[in-house]
Design goal:
Strand content: 25-35%
Number of strands: 11
Shape: globular
Number of helices: 2
Order of helices and strands: HEEEEEEEHEEEE
Strand order of the largest sheet: 2-1-6-7-9-8
Structural class: alpha+beta
């Protein structure tokens, strides 16, 4: 993790989607600017899963990630500022990154206690909450033939009146597309 600390959180998410096909985000929903359903707004350990096969667009911006996600089958437009993101990994392979400085205090204490109890030369970051998270290596990602590449595609605005200002997402926003 120390070698990759200069890599942006957006790049980590993009790399995981390209290499692994899916990513679990660990979010402190109590942070300023987080938009999730009200019932999850007080959750410091909110887990969100993104998948390249999701039909809706995923906007991986400079300061936040935005997408319409489903909670119990009900869609909700979510905004996740990167300040609220403290982990991103594939739960199947364990590939990903943790950002202890962004973790809520109770989680960080548990993480650091577990980390200090293990050999510092390990290539994994053990935590009670996440199992073992292995750091992503070789940025930028080298895309294999078995994984599609993602690119941002800008949509043309739909004809008619502009969307009302109370809507969180605009119809002209770009989306990710698989490139084969």
């Amino acid at each position: 993790m120390t070698d990759n600390q200069h890599i942006s959180k957006g790049e980590v998410i993009r790399t995981l989607l390209e290499r692994e096909g899916r990513v679990m985000l660990c979010v402190d929903a109590t942070c300023k600017g987080v938009e999730v359903p009200r019932r999850f707004a007080s959750d410091t350990e909110l887990r969100l899963i993104l998948n390249v096969k999701m039909p809706q667009s995923i906007e991986i911006g400079q300061k936040s990630l935005e997408s319409e996600l489903r909670f119990g089958g009900i869609p909700h437009y979510c905004i996740i500022p990167y300040e609220a993101l403290w982990g991103a990994f594939n739960p199947d392979s364990g590939q990903g990154m943790l950002w202890p400085e962004a973790m809520p205090e109770a989680i960080r204490k548990s993480y650091l206690a577990t980390r200090n109890a293990t050999d510092d030369k390990q290539e994994i970051f053990p935590t009670g909450l996440l199992g073992a998270v292995r750091p992503i290596k070789e940025f930028p990602a080298k895309i294999g033939e078995d994984r599609p590449k993602l690119e941002i595609v800008q949509r043309e605005p739909e004809p008619g009146p502009p969307p009302s200002p109370d809507k969180k997402h605009a119809t002209a926003r770009g989306h990710l597309r698989l490139v084969k």
